[in-house]
Amino acid sequence: MTGGLGTRHWVTFMLFLGMANAYIMRTNMSVAIVAMVNHTALPVISEPTDTECGVLIGNETHASTQDGSFVWSSTLQGYILSSFFYGYVITQIPFGILSKRFGARYFLGIGMLVNSVFGLLVPVAAEAGFEWLILVRFIQGLGEGPIVPCTHAMLAKWIPPNERSRMGAAVYAGAQFGTVISMPLSGLLSAYGFSGGWPSIFYVFGLIGTVWCLAFLFFVSEDPEQCPSIKEAEKKYILSSLWGAAGSSSPPIPWSKILLSTPFWAIMLAHMGQNYGYETLMTELPTFMRQVLHFSIKDNGFVSALPYLCMWLFSMFISVVADWMLSSGRFNHTQVRKVINSIGQYGPAAGLFIAANTGCNPAATVAILAVGVGLNGGIYSGFKVNHLDISPRFAGVLMAFTNCLANLTGLLAPIVAGYIIEGRPTQAQWKKVFYIAGGVYIFCATFYNVFASGRRQDWDNPADDEANAKKAADKKAIKQEKKAAKNQSQAETAQ
Q1: Which of 297, 345, 293 is nearest to 449 (CA)?
Q2: What's phi and psi for 394, nearest 5 deg?
Q3: Bridge partners, 70 (sequence order)
Q4: Cα 336 from chain centroid?
Q5: Domain boundaries, position 114
Q6: Which of 325, 344, 317 is nearest to 448 (CA)?
Q7: InterPro entries from the entry (predicted)?
Q8: At what angle do helices 105-120 and 92-102 cross, to 10 degrees?
Q9: pLDDT computed for residue 488 by the predictor
Q10: Tens digits of per-residue pLDDT, 25-44?
Q11: What is the pTM of this model?
């Protein structure tokens, strides 16, 4: 069975909703905190601005809505916002390894349930003190840690190779969909919601997240073999195409071979470059437009969400193209991954270089931002699903490592930008920020194009399982014999 809607499409849809829910939980605090803080009570430190593009006319920054009740400095707000990500990074690798051994479904469902339930506690924690709020957000991050590695592990068990571009992009595009939903809806809830406005953000999304988690745990199975409702024809189609990928009872993780694998390092570098460039593109361009062009993109909810919307739509389009290229038989997996990934990473690099030279033109900068981030959607059918190509059985573990290091790399983007433009927000300094990010994109994408592969690696060959198991058993037996002989020798000596 290759056509029509099946159980694998239901699993894909549920994973898409899970990814959307995860990004809503990740981003809603950045919107809510604006309504939570009493900005009037904070000491005012004027932000340095540049006059190359004229001076700011009028006070465009006063248009914020009513102040909240919390007097939190900008530094403290930074700690509150970042606490989620520290928890998120910590659990990536442990849950990636555990999901390989025990299965991904429970870790994903229960982890997101923890995230959602603690989201409901955010208003109470904020009232109790910022320390409690930081702790709750940190625990939310811990709960969200399994989302990417466990999603990857489940895709490896459910999706045949020739459908991975489309299905993988559909699932991970949930990140952009969640952001597009979260930003404007959180703004509306903070202004018009119940319980004083901003608390309703966490109550609404926390409840939605909890419902999704329960539905996921009750209605989604670990793999086709454990699914009671899947049709036999679809089960045979999936299992025959995956060739030993399903199930959690596969052999031990070949750590040394993975670490010596150049295709793995190609994915790693591409992922790290993506997060660095993406964070620069999305967090620093609005600051550039405020400091240099005197225009805040965040004054308009639609424009703020536009780049994410473009990325989501383009990722859907290019994933269909990628699967068509594979189905046509004219291109192999390696060629498709490299071509599509080049669009996804060279495109944003070009956008950064152009944005650095648009001069005093806010409209052009916004357009470049939308196009650059839009083209970035190619990465979902590029390196992002490449883990599934080179190692279906260990895809969750590989994604755990690359996503962990990529997120740590992404944290460097605002730090580097802040160091370069500190007190000197001129166009010349901002050019350096954009050129560095564009250069990182190009270097990492080129490394990927040289060393990446779409072929399943020899160290994930199910045909070698029996021989590897025998070799490991023989090695263990020899060790035990040597240990027994040593103990006997020591006993004889003692006598």
Answers
A1: 345
A2: -115, 20
A3: 37
A4: 22
A5: 1-42+67-246
A6: 344
A7: MFS, MFS_dom, MFS_Na/Anion_cotransporter, MFS_trans_sf
A8: 140
A9: 76
A10: 887 887 777 777 765 665 65
A11: 0.75
